[in-house]
Design goal:
Rossmann fold, Transcription Regulator spoIIAA, 6-stranded parallel β-sheet, 5-stranded mixed β-barrel, 13 helices, about 20% strand, globular, disordered N terminus, binds S-adenosyl-L-homocysteine, binds iron/sulfur cluster, binds FE3-S4 cluster
């Protein structure tokens, strides 16, 4: 295929023409798409929107890349490991493309939004036909039309477009749980993080649009709604107000949200969580580090003491209140002693779960220019130390639920045995219990009998 940029989209494009073109190519056969979303729930939502657009023009979906005529990698750029996995995948498609040259291979999402990545794909991965960034979803039909019609390679990593398209219908993977973005982008520029560069500035969706979407999902039978934003606390129309408004929707469902930046988490937020019966009594509050010097270098804009105030406030009212956290190990310049402060902090704050990562250098960020003398291998050992510490203390902390009854949304078959079901409590803790498969998709009350390091065990009451 020859190189060509998107700047001059064929002016005969229309959805009708696109559909006709697909019929010409596939005849009576339904075209199949393989789509894989990497990274966070926000990205998964984008993937579901692309699926929705494809379904509208007659595509169906497959888990088998060999059967697909369109392969889409919806990528994540947050850590190097995520990017390596994508390049590994695209590498493998070289053979597939040779055997089936008509297969269209597309790379989109956060990784594709970075110029150096788009260049690398353009120059070294000729099997890829279409590359587009996080601001180009609205142009997906036009780009697909151009690729199919002209057989040229299309690259679109245009800069931010402030509009939010409310008309893209999502084809959701789950019938039980749904994510609803309330805002896009991030203004915080934590020094290690690529997200503000690939997702642009904050844009909030209007309250009415969010309210209507959640109402429709509840009517359609969804049991768990997760509100998404890189920092939901800076939702323009007031986040506690939004929670209160959504809490008035009638039906058997619960509300979660993520993420909540500690610098903007207020006592009003905690009060609202505690007051609203539909909102889960759980807060994912990424701490990143337990050392004030490192937090300052990360540009997180809070101290460990300020962070502690939020936790103490919530637990004073509800001692069982659940917190989970993200931790970065081995930020540039971090010493072992500073890392030990993080270890101390996780014991103090008794998180129900931590998502911990070795620092990954992201080019274009401030931290990428900072001196970093600790090897990746050493940082990996620190990470293991942190996880062991968490595991050792976590079981006794999770034991606070033994003897209590938790409301669990049954989601799938369990790991413990074939008779067990697996679900999550309001606190977002995995709970396994013996139950009939017919219960999947409904709430059950489970009396907790045992705490393990990965889940709670219980019995239906
Ligand atoms: N907006 C969310 C985080 C989104 S990224 C928030 O602020 O909470 C999810 C997590 O990835 C972050 O919380 C952080 O712990 C981790 N992360 C981000 N950039 C990273 C990097 N360069 N290296 C390692 N982990 C990183
Ligand atoms: Fe990244 Fe910080 Fe924004 Fe979260 S708040 S997405 S960690 S810059
Ligand atoms: Fe999400 Fe990864 Fe992009 S975490 S916002 S998919 S960089």
């Amino acid at each position: 295929m020859k190189n060509k940029s998107i700047c001059c989209i064929d002016n005969v494009f229309s959805i009708e023409n696109l559909k006709n073109l697909i019929t010409v190519i596939h005849g009576e056969n339904t075209p199949l798409c393989y789509l894989h979303s990497f990274g966070c729930q926000q990205n998964a939502t984008d993937g579901e929107k692309i699926k929705g657009m494809l379904a509208e023009i007659g595509y169906d979906f497959t888990d088998d890349t060999e059967k697909a005529s369109l392969i889409i990698m919806n990528t994540c750029a947050v850590r190097e490991h995520a990017e390596d996995r994508v390049f590994g995948n695209i590498g493998k498609f070289k053979k597939l493309k040779k055997e089936k040259p008509d297969t269209i291979i597309c790379v989109c999402g956060c990784m594709a939004q970075q110029k150096h990545i788009a260049e690398r794909i353009k120059n070294n991965y000729h099997q890829v036909d279409l590359v587009f960034g996080t601001f180009a979803y609205n142009k997906f039909y036009e780009m697909l039309y151009e690729v199919l019609k002209t057989k040229s390679r299309v690259f679109n990593i245009s800069e931010q477009d402030d509009s939010i398209n409310e008309n893209l219908k999502q084809l959701r993977d789950s019938k039980i749980k749904a994510s609803v973005p309330i805002m896009y982008g991030c203004n915080n520029f934590c020094t290690y993080c690529i997200v503000p560069y690939v997702r642009g500035r904050e844009r909030s969706r209007p309250v009415e649009a969010v309210f209507d979407e959640v109402s429709d999902l509840v009517k359609a039978g969804y049991k768990e709604i997760t509100l998404l934003g890189q920092n939901v606390n800076s939702y323009s129309y007031g986040f506690p107000q939004l929670l209160k408004r959504l809490n008035t929707i009638e039906g058997d469902f619960r509300i979660r949200f993520m993420s909540s930046h500690p610098k903007d988490a207020t006592s009003e937020l905690i009060d609202t969580i505690l007051d609203c019966d539909k909102v889960c009594k759980h807060l994912h509050l990424p701490m990143q580090s337990g050392c004030n010097r490192v937090l300052k270098e990360m540009n997180r804009k809070y101290t460990v003491e300020e962070y502690a105030k939020i936790i103490d406030y919530a637990r004073e009212i509800n001692p069982d209140f659940s917190f989970t956290s993200d931790i970065i190990v081995g930020f540039p310049g971090e010493t072992y002693e500073e890392f030990c402060e993080t270890k101390k902090a996780i014991n103090r704050f008794k998180f129900d779960n931590i998502y911990s990562f070795v620092y990954s250098k992201r080019s274009g960020t401030k931290a990428a220019l900072m001196e970093d003398n600790i090897s990746h291998k050493q940082k990996g050992l620190w990470l293991r130390e942190l996880l062991l510490e968490h595991r050792e203390n976590n079981v006794s902390w999770m034991s606070r639920f033994v003897g209590k009854t938790l409301k669990v949304l049954a989601e799938k078959e369990g790991r413990t045995s074939e008779h067990h079901l697996n679900g999550r409590s309001d606190e977002n803790i995995i709970v396994e219990f013996i139950g009939d498969k017919a219960l999947i998709g409904s709430f059950v009350n489970v009396k907790i009998t045992k705490a393990m390091n990965w889940a709670l065990l219980g019995e239906i009451v």
